[in-house]
Design a protein that fits this description.
9 helices, 47% helix, alpha/beta, disordered C terminus, seven-stranded mixed sheet, 15% strand
Length: 262
């Protein structure tokens, strides 16, 4: 009886704590379910996009591959960047004229083809994709577009694992030791800042200047805000050249970095 007497005043607090626990558990379950659905839908999207593009494009024609991607996106959910963002990427490629490009996040191979078609004949693209199946299908799309293995390299790993291994990939060409002059990030936004710092630490960004393109699927995500705050706080390293709805161009330059890879 005495236990009931002392417990009654505590009932509101017990109910409140119990409700909060249920809310937190429900939130965690919702996040886990959302992540799982996104993973399943992403894999299905890559497969269906690949099948559509492979069967309907003109093989050996990069522009036909890109047009078929856009045709698919008109009637299906798609992971590739929007036409507006694609035009912005093309503009940067034509202005910067990079010879070495790093792409983090391959998705269906759409952006890889866009980048490759604007590289000079001796230019190279290194693209990193964490999912082996997506990397395999994306590589096939690149080959279907008419490019050779000598023009690109696909690394199947996380960006955190790939970046420290990139220095041997950048073999000096004709006595130069330039790093990447353009980096496109379209993978996990939470990795944008750690990967940018890793690229800088490994001296993989061209010291004479490197444009870093940050692609956003969700502008309100924490990752984009974090990296932009970091960039704005370090004007000696970075400058924001342009900000679009789904893409920001950052220019990196560090005159004190005189060597990259040997």
């Amino acid at each position: 009886m005495w236990l009931m007497v002392f417990s009654v005043p505590l009932l509101p607090a017990i109910v409140m704590v119990s409700s909060r626990c249920r809310v937190r558990v429900a939130a965690l379950c919702h996040r886990a379910l959302t992540w799982a659905l996104r993973l399943v839908r992403g894999t299905a999207c890559v497969r269906s996009t690949h099948a559509f593009v492979f069967s309907r494009c003109t093989h050996g024609k990069a522009d036909s591959v890109l047009e078929t991607f856009d045709l698919y996106a008109d009637t299906h959910p798609s992971l590739h960047i929007s036409p507006h963002t694609a035009e912005a990427v093309d503009e940067v490629m034509r202005r910067v004229r990079p010879s070495r490009v790093l792409e983090l996040g391959m998705h269906c191979g759409y952006t890889s083809v866009r980048l490759l078609r604007l590289l000079p004949p001796a230019g190279t693209l290194v693209t990193v994709e964490i999912d082996p199946h997506t990397a395999e299908l994306g590589e096939e799309i690149i080959l279907v577009a008419g490019f050779k293995h000598s023009q690109f390299q696909v690394l199947t790993s996380s960006s955190a694992e790939a970046i420290p291994s990139l220095c041997p990939v950048l073999e000096p060409d004709q006595g130069t030791s330039e790093g990447f002059s353009l980096v496109l990030m379209d993978h996990d936004p939470q990795r944008y800042l750690p990967d940018l710092l890793a690229l800088q630490r490994e001296k993989l960004l061209s010291p004479s200047g490197c444009s870093v393109l940050l692609i956003y699927r969700n502008r309100r995500a924490e990752g984009p805000r974090e990296i932009l705050d970091h960039i704005r706080a370090r004007p000696d390293y970075y400058a924001i050249k342009s900000e679009l709805q789904f893409m920001t161009e950052v220019f990196y330059q560090k005159s004190r970095d005189v060597t990259v890879c040997f």
